[in-house]
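Quick one: structure for this chain?
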Amino acid sequence: SDLMHLAREAARAGESFQMASAVEEAMSLEPAIGLDDMALALARHHFGNGEYGQALPLYQRALKDGVDSVPAVFFEIGRAYEGIGDCQNSLIYFEQFRERAPRSRRSEVDWFIGKCSFDRARELRARNGTTQTDLDDALALVERVLEVGEPRSILGEAWFERGEILAALGRCDEAAESFRQVRVVEGVSTGALVRRAQARFDEITFGRTLRGFRPDRPCG
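Got it. Here's what it folds into:
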């Protein structure tokens, strides 16, 4: 109890390292000791040090103790999951933060929502034995990227990915339009992405008469 008292004093003074040291020492002496109001402070200490794996169970404990009224906690948990490469879970918390956050902070979380949605969509499409459910989920994710409009640097890639997903689903006209949108987003660029998108657009548009010969690839 003395160590937990010291931990609370250190937390109030903004001394996170001393706070964490006191809590960890207390728990080594009495593993069953309750963290009570210290779970969030300890989670944020580990989060600030990039120790996301240690931070996450403490954040979850803090949520159980009633800090779900603090929107920033959801953003931090999303960042922690994103930090360990788990975009599937990070998106759950980013979206919850977005629902609760003031409009002034939405652009910040939209960047992470867009990035994680794009990464997760690519992951699903790259699976061996990709199913229609995988493709449907990937499509919803990439459309979320386009909906939030972030990160702006990958919007051309997002339209291209959308085109490939739609093509795999046999929705050829929509796929062609997605490939056309790549040039719209990229402007006058003649880079590799625009050339690839144009090639796929041409393949779909001018290859309609050949689709009957390749039922496994209805859109080329």
